[in-house]
Amino acid sequence: MHGPNIVEIIGQHVELRKVGREYFGLCPLHDDRRPSLRVNAEKQVWYCDPCGTGGDIIRFIELAERVSFKDALSILGIGDEREYRPSITQAKRKAASIAAAWMAEQRQKINALLGEKLEQIELADEIGDGELAETFLREQSFLRDLNDDLDLARYAGDFLSLKDSIELITEGVCL
Q: For the whole prediction, is pTM greater than 0.90?
């Protein structure tokens, strides 16, 4: 099933402007003075750096409209079709919990790295080194994409197979 288009739905709540591959707007979840809400149409996710909140279109509607998951589905016109799902064993539930905790920890560390990257970009701009600033911007873009993807449970298996590489990126970040 294809769900509603995230850009169209969020665009009904927030004025969005396309910049590169993403759309930016003022986040309705806090007093946003400059566009910090990012919407990625390709991945159908959104994220706000200052408030650290993001997710899919259902999560946006839940927060923006202050409604339950079920009400968000109704607002979006998504049926409450229930598919058969095999029961989840205690071992699978524990493994999923461990994976979710690890992914959340990595996101926190990447958020810290994003803050550092912003400072590096500003310093590079101050000293007039455009090439260095561009390098930092590319690194920031990579970290944002990784951060967005770490918020999606469907990638947990992929990320766990890359655990060592991801931990090399976040190594030394203290929370």
A: no
Question: What integer is the mean pLDDT of 26-30?
Answer: 91
Over the Cα atoms of the chain, what is R_g? 18
Q: What is the span of the domain harbouring residue 15?
A: 6-76
The reply to whether 85 falls in a domain is: no
Number of domains in the chain: 2
Confidence of residue 76 (pLDDT cuts 50, 70, 90): confident
> Is residue 33 domain-shared with residue 62, that is, in the same domain?
yes
Burial 49-87 (b: 16+ CB within 10 A, else e): beeebbebbbbbbbbbeeeeeeebbebeeeeeeeeeeee
* Residue 155, CA distances (Å) to 78, 103, 160 in order: 23, 10, 9
Q: Is residue 1 assigned to a domain?
A: no
Tell whether 109 and 143 lie within a shared domain.
yes
For the segment 49-65, what is each residue's pLDDT rounded down to a tens digit? 888 889 899 899 999 99
Domain boundary among 21, 45, 76: 76
- pLDDT tens by residue, 103-134: 999 999 999 999 999 999 999 999 999 999 99
143 falls within a domain: yes
Work out the angle at residue 40's Cα, subtended by the Cα atoms of residues 70 and 56, and round it to the nearest 5 degrees.
Answer: 15
CA distance 107 to 149: 9
